Each structure stands twice: as C-alpha cells, then as structure tokens.
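Our example copied in:
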Amino acid sequence: CGEHNPPQELFCVKCGSPLSETPVIIENRYKLIRKIGVGGFGKTYLAEDLQLFGKKVVIKEFSMNVSKFEEFAKYTQKEGMVLAKLNHPQIPKIHGFLEDRKNAKIYLIQDFVEGKNLRQILAERKKLEEDEAIIVLKDVLDILHYLHSFNPPLVHRDIKPENIIVDPNGKAFLVDYGAVIEYQSDQKDREIIYTKGYAAPQQKQGYSSPSTDLYSLGIVAIEILTGLNPEKFKDEETGVVDYSVIKDLSVELRDFLMRMTKPSPADRFKNAAEAKSALDIIEKIRTLRDIKINQYRGKIGDKERKEIIDMAHKLGIPSDLINKVIDEEKHKTTVKASTSTSSVATSPFVTRLSMAPQTGAVTTIKMLGKVQAHQGAAIKVIFSPKGDSMITAGLDGVVKVFGTSDWERKISLKATSEDDAVTDIKVSPNSQYFVVSTKNGLVKFYETSAWTRLSVVKLQNDEISEIAFSPDSRFLYTGGYENIISIFDLIKVEKIGAMAGHNTWISCLDHSPKAPILVSGSWDGTVIIWDTSTFKQKLAVKEHLGQVRKIKFADSGKFFITVGNDGRLTLWDSNTLNAIKRHQISEDSGNIVDIAITPDENHVLIALETRLFVMGLELMDKKTEIDLQTRRCTSISIFPQKNYFATSDVEGMIKLWKLAGLT
C-alpha cells in the first residue's frame, strides 16, 4: 500500500499485510496471514491452523512487561476459564491460550468470523436503514441476554462498531472478549477498561454492569443509524445524548434508543431480555405500518384510528405507543422518498439482486392485455388448476370468472355482504369446488359446474388470512387472526379440529401438492411445518424478521419458498425440511406483495407494489424486472404449465403478461 513502516514491524501498520516473505509461525502451528486489529493490550491477527488443513482462526496477541507476566498470565488464565464457558452460535469459540514467557506474550486462539465489522460497513455505506439496524440490535441483544444470564453475569465492556461483525448471511456476531468480567454488584471492576465514546458513565468509574453493555449498544445503534461519531451527539463526561440527531427515525425506534442510552441505569431497560421484548413490539409496529398505517398516507380519521388501534391491541402493542405512532403519521407533511443509493450494493445484510447484464438468452416480459375487472380494488387473481378459468375478487365482495380461451367474463357473483370482505379465494385441486374466505371468519363453498353456492361455514372467530386445500381436495385449512389453523372435512362437511402452535396471527399458509405437508407463517416471523396425516407439528423456526408475507410450494412439491417483511427469501427442501438457500431482496424489500414459481421451477416471480422481478433460483440472480403500471399490485398468479401470469391491482385492473427467454 506504500505505507512507511518502522523497521521492527512484521506487518504493515496501515493495511496489515506481511512485510516479509518469510511467514511468521507461532508454536509451529499457527501461520499469521495479516494483522486485522490493534488494541490497548496488543494486536489481532488472522491466521491459518496448519494442523487443521489451513483452517482460518483469529489470534489475539497480548504483550506486557516481563516483570508483570506472571500476574497477567494468572489473570488471562482465569479469563480463559470464563470464555471457555461460552457456547453461542454468534460468539466465536475459544480454542485455547498459548504462553510465550521469553517474549512476555500471551496468545488467545478463537474462531474466525467471515464478514465485515460495522466500522467497515459504515465506511462504505455512511449509515444503515432502520430495518438493518434492527437486525443488528436483535442479534446483539440475544448475545447479551446469553452473557448476562450466567451466574454471575458476564459483562462484555467493549461494545463498539469494530466488535460487531456481520457475516455474509446478515447475522451479527459479537467479538473480542478481552475485557469481559464477571459482574459483582458489591465490587468495583478489577481494572477500568472502556472505549471512549461508547462507555456509560458508570463503566468509566469502574462500575460495569449488564446495564452498561445496553448503553454501549444503544450508542452503537445511534451511530450506525445517523453515520455520526459519538463525539457528535454524546457528552463524554455526563453520558447525556443529544437525541435531536435521531429525530427523523420512527417514533418507536427513537423511544427505544432513548431508553437504551439514558445516563442513569435506573432509566434504562432492566436487562437485555426486557430490551428484546421492546424490540419485538417495534417489529409488530413496523408490520402494522406496512399492512395498515401506510395505506392511509397520514390521512387518519376516527374510523382509521379505531381500526389501527384494534389491530394493535390484538398484536399486543401498548396503547400509549400506538397512539404516538398514529399522531406522528397524522402530522407528517411530507412523504419521504424511497431510499435508492449507490451504497446499497455493498450492504452485508443482503445478497443483492445482480444488476449486471445477463449473458445468453434475454428474459423479457410483455403485457398481452388487461381488463377492468372491478370498479374498486381487485384484491386477488387466480387460475383454476386446469387453466380453463381465471377468477378475480374485488374489495367490493364481487367475484368474477373469466374463460381463458376467449378471456370473456362468464360469471359474476356477490360473495360477501357490505359488512364483510373477501380475504382469499381458492379452487380445489380436483376443480370441483371454489372457496371464498372472509374478514368475518366465514368460508363460502361453491361448486364450479354451475357456480352455485353450497354452504357457508364459520371456521374462525376473526379474519381469515389465507386458505389451502389438501392434494386430494378432502380437507380445507384456514389461518388468520385467531392464531390457529382450522381444519374442515369436505366429505363430513364439518370442522373436525384445529392445529395450534403460532403465538401471533397467521399471515399465510400453503399445502404441498404432493405430500401431507402444510406450511404456515405468522406475524412474528415464525414458520411452522405440519404433518397433515396426523395434524401434528413437525418443525417450528423463527425464520423471518417481522411478518411472513407469502409461502409457495412448487408444483412438483419438491421445495417451497417463504418470504418475509424483512425481504428475506428462503428456499426449503420439502423432504429434509431444511432451509437450503437464503437470499435477501434489496429493493423495496419491505413491500413484497406476492410470489409465484414458474412451471419450470427454476425461477420465482416477486411482485412488489409497483414492480416485478424474475429471479433464478439456482444462482439467486435477477433475470429482469418490469414496471407493473399501477399504484399498487395486490396479487400474482401463474397460468398452469405455461409462462403466462396475471396481476391484480388497486385500480381494479387485471393484467395478463407473457414471460420469454427463461434459462
């Protein structure tokens, strides 16, 4: 890099690269590759373990005076015993200590975490978006909860951007446990250690505690959200924070950060668990913003306020907080433009959709035609299993059936009364039944030969989000705001039970077309896989940050896809039930409306509010994108066995599109 280095240096003081062609090897085992950090006690190196086929490890080198070596060695051995206890997936594992008495050095060997620390990310991105910061906060709070749960609690004492690494999958790791201590409420710290700018006043006085870790994390969060160094917003002597720098953040996140960073411990969260619970509430509010609040665009009257508050209460959001959120929305005078900066491509929280020119065949999408199907919003469009009908549903409760040979309307029926609304529509796999679910928890059954209504059944006590048939068309499953999945037997013509497992509203579900597997997702990001031969739960996992938006099985049943409000797309193997690929969608990822898998099962269509992406599932690369020519798309449906698809939108339009050039 051209830096002038002192003669005794083995590694460049600027870039960390080795200055000699002769490798530095410690204990005939660890080959130092480059220097990656310098601290108050020594240096940190990236190294290869020559006994484990070059496995990468991190080596921390502690240097001291020879006269103090024995004392320091005893201290580090005790510290090593503490660190050896740690077993958390986002804490690097400690492999051991090495002592070099001759040169008065001690080496700590630990796992290498691939990725970038927050300092490096800020150098590239300037600052992070709220959703990205929440990912960091959730991960680090989970780690702190683990550390603080020991008896006595372990206090990290050095939480700063350099010590939080984000790996290629977007997971945050907390590293560097050289300052960790066991918290004793009646004792002062053995020695005062802190990093200027991030330490709470109590830590600087020698009274570190779990609360001071929370303070430091709050300061880090403000820094990554504003791009400002702590010296720009924090009084170093008193620890008081100038909260005007976060005035543009959402009110719920502002309140959270203010409580994290109060100078007095009594005013902060009691512990990491309480902070995590508060962050869970923030996630629920952000989901509520996406699906309810934002549609009013600040025009919130008494009716809209009541709807928002009712939904907030069901989600467990405190009244005072949701009222602050509503008041903030009402007083907005401008609408912020969507973020689109060149720095997005370097975000480590996502594997960005490739914007590079495609090689080989070019994927194109062409609109073939459109029809004004509804006077108000069209909320859903689907094709029948045989592809002979296209069915649409409107916000006005009207369902329309179009033939796909001539695209003429065949049937129009009123499916709901004025005090109810359609939430989902499905045709059974055997094409005999058409089903409508409603906001009031009703399910209405129609036979498709004459489109006459057979029955109306109350399957849930609250709004139904989505419905799904079993492959043999015998069972219908409904999920919604009641947190359970109701099971209806079409042969017995009765509800036969329910499956419980979700802690919050069920937002979506889908059934495998080949096997007895149902997958459901809820507002807290949980995905549950059910065995519908026994109606028992097989697996439950917190896969997404916020609401699970859509679940879709491939026609072969070999895999299914889940997408969430966090913009993450997860590809699952239906046989092993393992997540085999994860990909974070970059642009407007919080506005995912619907997804569809192409007949070749090599691509997925991702509909956002105004645009649509085609993504290859092998490389997770973007093939093309189009403007959907609408204010807001509401659904997407693939024509069976053909590369055609339809979209519905809030203008009541149904558009038919053709895909070409898929490779």
